[in-house]
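Is flavin-adenine dinucleotide placement plausible here? Inputs below.
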Amino acid sequence: MTPSIAIVGASLAGLSAARALRARGFPGPITLIGDEPHLPYERPALSKQFLHTGEPISLLEDHSETTALDAEWLLGHRAIDFTPGSARTDTVGATAGSLADRHAGTWSTTSGAHRVDRRDEHPAADGSRHVITLEGGGAVVADIVVLATGARARRFPDLPGAHYLRNLDDAARLHEMLRHTRKLAIIGAGFIGAEVAAAARELGVDVTLIDAAAVPGSGALGESVASACAALHARHGVRLLTATRIEAVLPGAVHLVDGQRVAADAVLVGIGSLPNTEWASSANPLLHSPNGFPVDHLGRTAIPGVYAIGDCARVADPVTGGHSRTEHWHAAIAQANTIAAEITGTAPPPRTAPYFWSHQYGKLLQLAGDPSAATGLRVIDGALDDESFTVLYELDDIPVAVCALDNPRLFTRHRKQLDRALAAVH
Ligand code: FAD
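Reply from A.M.:
I modeled the complex. Tokens:
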């Protein structure tokens, strides 16, 4: 007998979960619920190539992948409420709407070719099912639920007309705006602000980047490397104003608290993100935390049979005991693999070092590991004021992270060493 699985959020983490479940032999019904009307697309491209081409890049390998996944896609459907199975075993039929019985009979016998280990112990084996209520009526009932609803752009208060960048619709508006803008002010010099600054410069726009930090990006990269990245902006003609804040945005200009005035026809805000959790956590205290659905290192929430992955998940680190929400491409895929292993009872994937990349001014910036754990920095190739460099972040001479600007070969060699070191201790 196999359970049914509903995955809420049909983007990178959700699709990766469906892929990993099938790759690990999960034979049961999978439903992917997504509020965007589009099939999954590459979100990172939205702040890079898309701003030049206006063409999204599909996340699906090709058209046949949807067939191979054998999943039901409910696109353009927003989940608005979640009722865990144990709370509603006796009321499923009563409140579920038109889609409610989509998975009735899920506990059919399946061939021995497919294996869902430990199914007798599985929380859904008692017949209780989780219910996801959809906006506009209807619901999806499933034995196992994967929460993969990502994050949304954090808004700047009282700034009508400002642009944000999180999804394809935002990117399409930004793409159009950049063609009609001479002067762009970007509030927030994080990775999205920096990438849009680079793309806008390449399109001939006059760009000012404004950030409250003295050295933007130093939290993620450390001060020396972040300073080197800040210098990239200056070399490409972007004005970077740091350690300052917005006082007001008036037509034609952004006013800063230190008295500076930045002429701007348009404003983009890139000040981070907030996890999309309220739809499920507001009625379920076990899914509530200040920053993401709380899960253990295997992606399990405190509700049996309910997992959370990707940008919406706040994951426990088994070594440090801390929790963090990682908003990077590779983390979403790794977490999807982890929960698929857990659900199917197959071998867990090896633990790998956190990794992300960024593209700015035609250059590839890559970081793997945890720079915050380091006590020292060693430049092993190039120089920080060069167009290319590679640095190791070290704790007592042992590398804990590596960062490179435009040196993917050397970076990859050291990243693999970090991965091997992690695999050896876990
Ligand atoms: P998302 O991709 O946000 O997907 C969540 C999905 O769930 C969305 O489709 C959302 O609309 C949907 N959803 C939300 N609420 C509901 C609901 N209630 N019901 C149904 N559906 C819902 N990472 C890197 O490592 N390198 C990069 O260069 C990089 N560039 C980026 C550039 C941009 C512009 C952005 C926005 C992100 C970038 N990232 C990058 C981060 C990376 O894209 C994310 O980590 C990744 O998309 C996370 O995947 P996810 O599926 O968890 O979340």
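Short version: The chain has three domains: 5-151+274-344, 155-271, 355-425.
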